[in-house]
What does this fold into?
Amino acid sequence: MNRHSMRAGVASLLSLGLLAAFPFEHRDGVAAPEFGEWSAPDNLGALVNTEFSEFAPHSSKDGLSLYFASTRPASYGSFGEEDLWVSQRASTDAPWGLPMNLGQVINTASNERSPALSRDGHYLFFASNRPGGSGGLDIWVSWRPNTHDAFGWESPVNLGAAFNSASTDAGPGFFENADVGTPYLYIASNRPGGFGLLDIYVSELVDGSFQPPSLANDLNTAQLDLTPGIRHDGLEIIIASSRPGGAGGQDLWAAIRETILDPWSTPVNLGTTINSASTDNFPSIAADRRSLFFSSDRPGGPGASDLYVSTRSQ
It folds into this structure.
C-alpha cells in the first residue's frame, strides 16, 4: 500500500468526521493445481485460547504476530466485552506466545473485533461499536509508523458515513493488488439491499478514501455470508456461510479467480477435513498462502470458541 496516500486518506476522514486447494495456476495453457489439500486443523492450544471465546485471527506478513479478538474478562486485562489481542512468536517454527492486550488506544469499553492488517503492516482495520460510528458495528482503521511494534498503533479513525451504514459493518478483509495498484476492502454487512441475512461487500480506495461498498454478487446467497478472508493477491477468498451443502451451521467456503478483474468462481465448501458440525468462522489466509487461521466452537478446545490453523503444501 502507498503509505503516504493512505495516511492522507485517514487525515481526510479525520476532517470528515471438497476441493482443498482449489486455487489453480496456468502452465502452458493447462490449469494445474497450485496447492495441496488443507490439513486437519490444529487447535492453537491453551496458552493462546482460554475458557472464553477467541475468534477472528489474522497473522502479520512475517508470520510472527497473530491478532485476534477475545471475550476474556477484565481479570485478563481486557477493557470491554470484546478486545483485540496479539500473540507473538520468535520464528514461524516456534509456538505462539502468551497473548497481550493491544491496549486502550485500540480497545474501549465497547466491542472491538475482526482485526485485519494491510500487507505492509502499517494499517489495522477492525470492527467496533464504539461511540462516533454510523451504526452498530463500523469499520475503523489505525496506523502505526513501526511495523515491528505490535503496540504502536495510533488513535483509530472511522471510515466514515459514506462507507459505514446504520447497520452492521464488520469482518474486514483488505488487499492491494500490485498489478493494478488499487486497494480493496471487503466487509460483511446486513445493510438494506442485500441478498440475505449478511452479505459480502467490497469497496475501492480512490484518492485516499474508501468508496461506498457494493455487493460482491458472486459470493452471496439468501443465507449468512460473512467474514471474508482474502488472499493478499486478491485471487482467492474464503468466507463463512450458512448456505446449504455444508457440514454444520456455518462452514468455510472458498472461491478463486484468475485476475482481480474476473468474477469469483462459485464458492466451494472446504469439506469435513476443515469444517465441523459446529460453527466455523473468521477465516484468514496467511501471507505464505499455505496457512489458514480460523475460529470454531467445535468440541475439544478449552473455550467457547478457539483459534485453529490448517496448512497446505505448495
Notes: The chain has one domain: 3-17+25-311.
